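Hi C.,

You asked whether I'd gotten around to modeling the 116-residue construct. I have! Everything is below, sequence then structure, no commentary in between.
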Amino acid sequence: MGHWAKVRFEGATSGIKAAMLRFKDATFDIRTAMLRFKGATSDIKGATSDIKGATSDIKAATSSIKGAMFKLKAATSDIKGAMFKLKAATSDIKGAMFKLKAATSNIKAVTPRLKV
């Protein structure tokens, strides 16, 4: 083998070695990227699970709010009923006061006649 053939062979071999190193670097970069992708996928799954949990919490809170609103409506109805009873009692008291005034007036009218 001639001198220049040997130089060209060594140059080609060196080029192949450099290409193989670049190939190894690229393979390492691909593996690193795949690990990052797996990590990101795991993070997405975790976030999705958190979102599902939050959605469930929101549904439960909505149900609780609906229950509280139902209780509030019932309490409002009870208050309205109590107010109606209070109006009726006030009316009864006014009627009794009217009767008491009438009775007092009758007593005052009879009292002078009782003096002997």
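If it helps when you're writing up: The chain is about 95% helix and 0% strand.

Thanks,
B.
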